[in-house]
Amino acid sequence: MPHSLSPFTHCPVCGSPRFEVNDCKSKRCPDCDFVYYINPSAATAAFILREGQLLVARRAKEPARGTLDLPGGFTDIGETAEQGIAREVAEETGLHARSVSYLFSLPNDYLYSGMHIPTLDLFFRVEVDAHEEAHAADDAAELMWLPVGDVRPELFGLGSIRRAVEAFIAVYSGE
Could you identify which of 46, 60, 96, 108 might form a hypothetical disulfide with 119, taking C-beta atoms 3.0 to 4.6 angstroms apart as the criterion? Predict the structure, then answer.
C-alpha cells in the first residue's frame, strides 16, 4: 500500500515540491523543516438493541454502498466521542440516545475519494427510548431491526464494523 500521505506532494506551509516521506505516518519538508503527521480520525458506531433485536442500517453512500452498517460516523471537531455517537444516531435514525456506554475500539482503513484514511473506530452500546420510531436519514438508506441471532457479519461492508459485529454477537450470545 502506498504511503498514506502520497497524494500530498507539496509542503502546506511553504509550498515546496520537496515534501518527502519522513516515516510511516509523516512527511517532512527539507526547505522549511515542517513535519506533517497523519493520525487516525475518530469514528463512532452504535449497537442499539431493542427486545433482542439489533438496529442495522443499509449504507446509502460509498464506501461499501448497499451493505449493512451500524449507525454512526465521524466525530466533529470539539465534540466528544459520546456526543458524536449521540448526534450520529439522531441524524441517521431519528432516535435520541438516553445513555451511551463505551465498549471497545478497532483500527480501520477507510477508503474515501480514492484515499486511504486511517480511522480509530469507537464502539458504543446506545440505549434509546422504547417508544421512538426509527427512520432512515442522512447516510442510511434503510434501517432494519434484526434478531441478534440472525445478524450475519459478512453482510457488513466495512472491515472494522464486521469485526465489531462478530465480537458483539459473541459477547451478546453469552449474556
Answer: 108
